[in-house]
Amino acid sequence: MTDGSADTSNSERTDPGALAERIDHDETIELLQELVRIRSPYFEEEAITEFVYDWLDARGLDPEYHAVSEPEITGFEGNNVLARLEGTDPDAPTLLLNAHMDTVELVEAWEEDPLSGRIEDGKLYGQGACDMKGGLAGIMVAFEALAAADIDLAGDVLFTAVVDEEGPYGLGANQLIRDSVTDDCDAAIVTEPGPILAQRDLENPALLLGARGRFLYDITVTGEAAHGSQPEKGTNAVVDAGRLAAALTEIDVGTHELLGDGSVCPLKIEGGGETLSVPEACRLLVDRHVVVGETEDVVRADAETVVAELGLDSAVEIDFREAPAPDVRYGPYVTDADDPLVDALRTGVGAVTGDDPAIGYFSSVGDFNYFGHRAGLPTVIVGPDGENIHGAGEFVYTDEVVDVARIVTAGCVALLA
Ligand SMILES: [Zn+2]
Fold first, then answer.
1. In the structure, what pLDDT confidence band is assigned to residue 11 with cuts at 50, 70 and 90?
2. pLDDT tens across 360-377, in order?
3. How many angstroms is it from 104 CA to the middle of ligand 1?
4. How are beta strands 379-381 and 213-222 bridged, if at all?
5. CA 374 – ligand 1 centroid, Å
6. Mean pLDDT over the full length of the chain
7. How far from 48 is each of 191, 304, 398, CA to CA, in Å?
8. What CATH number belongs to 216-320?
9. What is the DSSP letter of 41?
10. How far, in Å, is the centroid of ligand 1 from the Cα of 364?
């Protein structure tokens, strides 16, 4: 904490910028370094979960573990970390702050320790530094600042640090919805890296007001085996799956004035063998990113049309990836640019940086889809930028981490004071 904490004037109590200034640059970055140095690929988050809990606990912020369990497919058991600041007015909005604690698996191509947290030229290096331990550090220090201040927010702030965002199903955020934790929330801020993953070129400060959604086709192609020296006597499932993969990329995908275009990308094709047989089965996995209006029925019908038009000899069964429950899907969403949350974050950006934020939309999917689509909350992504996300040499800009912490703090005050 820096200046002004000893004498809190009335104006500071309601001035978003004044409280944000109390967030200390060096303390924030030291916290980020500690987070980066904890190895935490998805499904292996015990250590970082404990760290976040202890950090909040040591500051009297009353954290609690929130059990996450998915016995059917992954067998995962773990914990989110939650904490709540109670507002003074039960009718005032409740704001959810969210970050994920996990990273992707450590990438082998690093030429240095991927957990070093080394800082050079304002860049902090490490796997997950940008995605999204920078944003996690940001909401931790913002939450601390909001709690320490004697500003009496009218609304509640709910801190949520979740597990398994990078894993296949976003199990941590899914559990928040499953257990109705989001039911009393009115808006959500997610501090995922922003501009680098936006639909178009943007620079921070930026607010991302929506995201495309995603389906994963899981398609089975069944042909007929025959001796490989007489391919005309069988039906080659591998050849038909290849033709189908190519044809699916030609789907006339949806378009949205804000989210841009949908997209189709075949991800995996597996089938056949090394014996001299015409392959009788093949499996095809195809990513489909969608915009608002493209429902499961639409997406299924599109693929069925492609299959019908191709007239393959193989039988084709179109399905979607197995999920823990039918609603565990990344749906697209758009948050209204006039929403009070967006206004509050604009105020926060102005107070912290003096700028008007760029407005954009996210190109892929994440836990924010669960808040924005499934929970129906106005959801904004505001996060620090960096490079090499999910790759070797990942880094985050330290100044942007501090800016995001301050913007979130100021935005909370603007919305809830
Ligand atoms: Zn992320």
1. low
2. 999 889 999 999 999 999
3. 9
4. unpaired
5. 18
6. 94
7. 17, 45, 20
8. 3.30.70.360
9. B
10. 10
CB burial class (10 A; 0-12, 13-18, 19+) of residue 195?
A: buried
For residue 50, give the nearest of 80, 84, 85 by alpha carbon.
Answer: 80
User: In whole angstroms, what is the distance from residue 409 CA to residue 191 CA?
Assistant: 12
Quote the CA–CA distance of 248 and 303 in Å, as a whole number.
Answer: 7
The alpha carbon of 170 and the centre of ligand 1 are apart by a number of angstroms equal to 10
Residues making up the chain, counted from first to last: 417
Tokens 């320790």 belong to residue:
113
Residues in Cβ contact with 416 at an 8 Å cutoff, skipping those fewer than 6 apart: 87, 92, 93, 95, 153, 154, 155, 156, 157
Rounded distance from Cα 100 to ligand 1 centre (Å): 7
CATH 3.40.630.10 fits 10-212+332-416, yes or no: yes
Predicted confidence band at 150 (pLDDT cuts at 50, 70, 90)?
Answer: low
Q: What is the pLDDT of residues 17-32, one digit of tens each?
A: 889 999 999 999 999 9
* Residue extent(s) of CATH 3.40.630.10 domains in the chain: 10-212+332-416
Beta strand 64-70 with 119-120: parallel, antiparallel or unpaired? unpaired
pLDDT digits (tens, 9 = 90+) for 375-407: 999 999 999 999 999 999 999 999 999 999 999
Q: Separation of 192 CA from ligand 1 center, angstroms? A: 5
Distance CA 92, CA 335 (A): 20
CA of 10: how far to CAs of 2, 24, 146, 326, 396, in Å? Answer: 18, 22, 15, 50, 36
Q: Is the distance from CB of 194 to CB of 384 less than 8 angstroms?
A: yes
CB atoms within 10 A of CB 26: 10
Written as one string, the DSSP assignment of 149-182 is S----SS-EEEEEES-SSSSS-HHHHHHHHTTTT
What tokens were used for 201?
């070129």
